[in-house]
Records
---
Amino acid sequence: MSTTAGYTVTGMTCGHCVNAVTEEVSQVPGVTDVEVDLATGGLTVSSKSPVDDAAVRAAVEEAGYEVSGR
């Protein structure tokens, strides 16, 4: 069984932004898949068990962007 969590990321403007967020969030322990939609700023994180929101937010910030709501 897997779980998914959705977030909205602000500040992304290009494919490089998407790659940076994908790379950082993929390193969060337990994450099995990351999908980023540049047009909407949507971030979908899949994992085998719920992932710590703070860890996902920190990964997005490490990539240089912000999570605005969930």
---
Amino acid sequence: MLLRRRRRLPMPRFEAPRPESASPPRTGHNNGPPLDPEESWRGFVWRKKCKQAWKVPREIALRRLARAEALGMSYRDYTLEILERGTYL
């Protein structure tokens, strides 16, 4: 059986334009676009915790709803006040 050698093609070099003052990328950098500050890990955690703050057990939601109606507020407004101040009205 005759063994054949595989020829490796040279890897194409794609380089994104960089400003003159930028330092060369570190090892492992894929030359992708810079990350948006809005879409960073902190933004992800913030959105996750905001969603989690609105999820409460049924009994707590019903108690807040009753208290909000007694004060003449909506449930959403009453809950926002609790979340902002950290105290009950």
---
Amino acid sequence: MSSEPIHTEHAEEHGDTMTKKRIWNVFFVLLGITAVEFFIALYLVPHDIITYHTANPIYIVLTLAKAFYIVGYFMHLKFEKMGLIFAIIVPVLFIIGLILVLTNESHHWVDLRM
């Protein structure tokens, strides 16, 4: 097997390509993050080294890091700067707006009960 680069149309224009070496590097980063998550879940939390309240934000950050690598490299959005921005920021803004609207609505329903 050769280590020829895997080309995308946009990557060829800018010289960014996914080689087998880069794919394996991303795989090992994802494997490492998953191993850290398992270590926290199977050792640190059950042995009361850290609490659930501390572990949950760590899981969220590690999961977002894995999502960045998956979206960035395997979906080739790392090479598409605007695509990555729109794929991450726009949904986050919609989710924040939805949370604000639902919070406002929940206050309305609480006021109706009183």
